[in-house]
Amino acid sequence: MKLEDDDFSLFGLPQQFAQPAAEVEQRWKQLAARVHPDRFVTEGAAAQRMAMQWALRVNEAHQRLRDPLKRAAYLCELRGAPIRAHDNTSMPSSFLITQMQWREALEEATDTSSVQVLDHEVRQSEQQLHQQLQQQLDELNDAPAAAQTVRALMFISRFRTELDRRMDALEQ
């Protein structure tokens, strides 16, 4: 193990989008136990500092690997197609139209059932995009296309927060 290893190498996992959640959690627990600073109490301050660096590195990798969206963005970056969400919002025009339709539907939603219908539609789209992402990254090795899909999923994640807020407001 080296601190500069990519997250997948660090966890001993294949560098792919599809990862069994239970496997990621098991590897994290094993690594976290191995590098926990308390195991190095008798070895002095330098060993404890190094263990702390390792613990931080393992936890950082775990955060990325356990979250499908973060994992996909990380894979895109590793494969030379960083997401650059702050300065690159390009998406297919069909998805932009869908975004506008969802926003209009949310603005017009006056009861919980209409928000639930919209939420169901968004969830279906999200599932389709996750399947598309797996194909783009694991089968086609098309990181630029996957980066675009990740940006779409980032929008959906933010939009889901808006849906939840609207649902909460309507339920009060």
UniProtKB/TrEMBL annotation:
The keyword Chaperone applies. It comes from the Bacteria. Pfam families: HSCB_C (PF07743). Keywords: Chaperone, Coiled coil. Residues 115-143 form a coiled coil. InterPro entries: DnaJ_domain, HscB, HscB_C_sf, HscB_oligo_C, J_dom_sf. Residues 6-78 form the J domain. SMART domains: DnaJ. The keyword Signal does not apply. HAMAP family: HscB. Co-chaperone involved in the maturation of iron-sulfur cluster-containing proteins. Seems to help targeting proteins to be folded toward HscA. Interacts with HscA and stimulates its ATPase activity. Belongs to the HscB family. This is Co-chaperone protein HscB homolog. The gene is hscB.
